[in-house]
């Protein structure tokens, strides 16, 4: 076991907890005091935490690292995950509306991953797309404060949509843990 004065076998910024991604005192996902009140606030808190985790997993990497594929034949990369989640946020708005579906951001199936090129312009666009699509979906759902309300053509409940959003981000944050570890050895928390 490494002493605190030695660099651990797995790299970490943590100074007190060498096996953690960040020191607990510096973790922006940790809040002092009790959790949020109510079901809706709790769901939003979990969603916010997973969104922040995804961004943290991408911090400090260049375009090549963000676009680096995991293992052949997979096309998964951190940049691909960012693009995929922007696409998914847009698609969730299609679940809410009775109107025509919004067009895909990146084109045909898997274009979100396939088009994740190691170019800074692609990286910048992906993060702008994600931020915009998250805000648009958040705004659309804010118009439906009753979690039991049924929305869209399929009558999906707002609660189901919120839980599905959390599940999608949580699953992909697990992928992001592994992708980041392959890039520079940093492990999840």
Task: Describe the fold and architecture.
- The chain is mainly α and about 190 residues long.
- The protein has a domain at about 60-185: Four Helix Bundle (Hemerythrin (Met), subunit A), CATH 1.20.120.
- The chain is built from six helices and two strands.
- Strand 1 and strand 2 (about 155) form a beta hairpin.
- Helix 1 packs parallel to helix 6 (about 160-185), helix 3 runs parallel beside helix 5 (about 120-140) and helix 3 (about 80-95) runs antiparallel to helix 6 (about 160-185).
- The chain is globular.
- InterPro entries: DinB/YfiT-like (IPR034660), MST-like (IPR007061).
- This is DinB family protein.
Q: What would you say about this model in short?
A:
With 189 residues, the chain is mostly helical. It has helices at 39-58, 63-67, 78-96, 111-114, 120-142, 158-184, and strands at residues 150-151, 156-157.
Structural class: mainly alpha
Would you tell me the overall average pLDDT? 85
Helices and strands, in order, run as HHHHHEEH
Percentage of β-strand residues: under 5%
Cα separation of the termini: 19 Å
**DSSP, total strands:** 2
Biggest sheet strand line-up? 1-2
Q: And the CATH topology of the domain at 62-184?
A: Four Helix Bundle (Hemerythrin (Met), subunit A)
Protein name: DinB family protein
Organism: Streptomyces viridosporus T7A
InterPro entries: DinB/YfiT-like, MST-like
Pfam family, one: MST
